[in-house]
Specification:
single chain, about 180 residues, alpha/beta, Rossmann fold, six-stranded mixed sheet, 7 helices, about 50% helix, about 10% strand
């Protein structure tokens, strides 16, 4: 089973993303296929938080539109939504200790632990931080590379770096707009 991280959902939804077309195609292929695919519930929450945030996107996605997008994904009969189960804690602990995480990386450990606990064979993500979690294959189809093999720093032009840059630029524009 393939699982999707938040950034794939954001790129597939936001038409202003430079990776929209490819991410949309990836999600549509999974959603329309017969093989099970997965999204951790916490990634759904994070998707809603990101696309509706006025400091990340100008204009942000209206909440109703974002909720309707989630409903559209949920209509896929092959979608499996991943949630914590009885054995989840051992996977979270192993991910946290094995990944030597702290602070915001706890969320990534949660996603990794959910995927491992549910037998996900591959997580599609543009976030290279997932490479720190053993036991989970990470792939970025948008870049055509395995993130486990990617050892460089985030480079301008990569999807995750671009998302951070876009958020920073939007915050600066919004601050300037409020001053004027």
């Amino acid at each position: 089973m393939i699982a999707l991280d938040t950034n794939f959902l954001v790129y597939a939804h936001r038409e202003d993303s430079p990776w929209h077309s490819e991410a949309y195609r990836c999600v549509a292929t999974l959603a329309e296929g017969r093989q099970p695919w997965a999204v951790p519930w916490c990634c759904i929450h994070e998707f809603l938080s990101i696309v509706t945030h006025p400091r990340i996107y100008i204009p942000p996605t209206p909440l109703k539109v974002a909720l309707d997008q989630v409903e559209a994904w949920r209509e896929s009969p092959s979608l499996v939504l991943l949630a914590e189960t009885e054995g989840y804690w051992k996977h979270l602990r192993a991910a946290a200790e094995g990944g030597r995480i702290a602070g915001p990386l706890v969320h990534d450990a949660r996603v990794a632990a959910l995927c491992i606990a549910h037998g996900v064979r591959e997580l599609w993500s543009a976030d290279r931080d997932f490479s720190r979690f053993p036991g989970l294959k990470i792939r970025n189809p948008l870049a055509g590379e395995s993130l486990r093999e990617y050892s460089g720093n985030l480079q301008a032009g990569t999807p995750f770096a671009e998302m951070k840059d876009q958020a920073r630029e939007n915050a600066v524009r919004e601050k300037a707009r409020k001053k004027s």
